[in-house]
Amino acid sequence: MKKIFILVTTLSSMTFVNISVITNAQNRILKLTGTVDRVWDDGFILKTKHKNITVDSWDLCGDNTFRYVSEGDLLVVRGEYEDGEFDAFSLENSNKQKICPDRYRD
Fold first, then answer.
1. Is 100 inside a domain boundary?
2. CA separation (Å) from 27 to 30, 31, 53, 82?
3. What is the pTM (predicted TM-score) of this model?
4. Which of 30, 65, 67, 76 could form a disulfide with 61 if both were Cys (CB 3.0 to 4.6 A apart)?
5. 23-51 pLDDT, tens per residue?
6. Who contacts 79 (Cβ-Cβ below 8 Å, separation ≥6)?
7. Would you say residue 106 lies in a domain?
């Protein structure tokens, strides 16, 4: 297993990105940390220092992401890139609490 760790911090804007890459023969899992910039039914924009990332959270929250995630939230998102989006496998807030832990869907 190969692990790459990158940490970027800016105190003036309180925005940072923490990216871990864990690679094995079968998959590539990324861990992103950033601030939520915009939320919709099944996803959100995660704002990092270098870019905004579109996160697909449907597998976790269904069409109810807006019930669990708000603009300005600091989140840790684990998942993988697929078709231009980041598919979330797990979401945690700044208190390390799981978001959408019941995989709620309509």
1. no
2. 10, 13, 20, 12
3. 0.72
4. 65
5. 443 468 899 999 999 999 999 999 988 89
6. 29, 30, 32, 55, 86, 87, 88, 89, 90
7. no
